[in-house]
Amino acid sequence: MEPAHDDLRARLQTDRPHSARVWNYLLGGKDNYPVDIEAGEAILATFPEFASVARQQRRFLARAVRFLAGEAGIRQFLDIGTGLPTADNTHELAQRIAPESRIVYVDNDPLVLVHARALLTSSPEGACAYVDADVRDPDRILAEASKTLDLDRPVGLTMLGILGQISDEDRPAELVSALLDGLPAGSWLALSDGTNTNEALNRAVEVYNRQSANTYHLRSPQEIASFFSGLDVVEPGVVPTVEWRPDPGRPDQDAPHVSIAGVAAKR
């Protein structure tokens, strides 16, 4: 068993920050290492509002999944770039509305997968599965997801903050298309990502990228909106994340608008 432990340690790279662990720190979690805390504090020193940006994205996930499981009637979800478990994970949100919902979580961070298997337990009527894969390998993701999901029936594909971790050289729009090509008509995409419209955030991401094991790539709102090409985007469109069907009270309304989000159906 020792080689497996060595491989796990090597993949964890506890000497360098990892995005899921830094995100966990910014959300107030405990599943991180000193290097992740240091990276998180460096981001906050340059862009103090970043923790609220992290919360914005979690709240968008909740609103999007409630829409998909409720109004859209989706009963299968493929959550790519899961991140470390926190409150209101995809299966919890969906199964509150439809206990029979089936969810596949995908991440390539071994710490995420260890925690997901331990903490993300399905309702008896539904199912949860966990796939160790990179978004750059859509064929593997779809093949593994098909063991839990019926890919002849509509699926809700969620991609929150994941395409920012993909460089232009890896063609993020083609990765989205490849995943959607493996899903039937009537499937949905919920996507949110960071924009390059705020200079303080741009500087904070530069600081992060200089020390992190994985870099983040902010893009223009137009580039992010192009990921929805060929899909039927529901109202209010591809908009600042806090403006996508906000809950009453709009707790994030005063936060900087540095990410955009949308939900769209595949014809």
From TrEMBL:
Regions of compositional bias (Basic and acidic residues) in chain numbering: 244-255
Pfam family for this entry, one: Methyltransf_19
InterPro entries the record matches: SAM-dependent_MTases_sf, SAM_dep_MeTrfase_SAV2177_type
An annotated Gene Ontology molecular function: methyltransferase activity
Keyword Transferase: yes
Keywords: Methyltransferase, Transferase
Biological process, per Gene Ontology: methylation
Region: Disordered, residue numbers: 244-267
Name of the molecule in the record: SAM-dependent methyltransferase
Biological classification of the source: Bacteria, Bacillati, Actinomycetota, Actinomycetes, Kitasatosporales
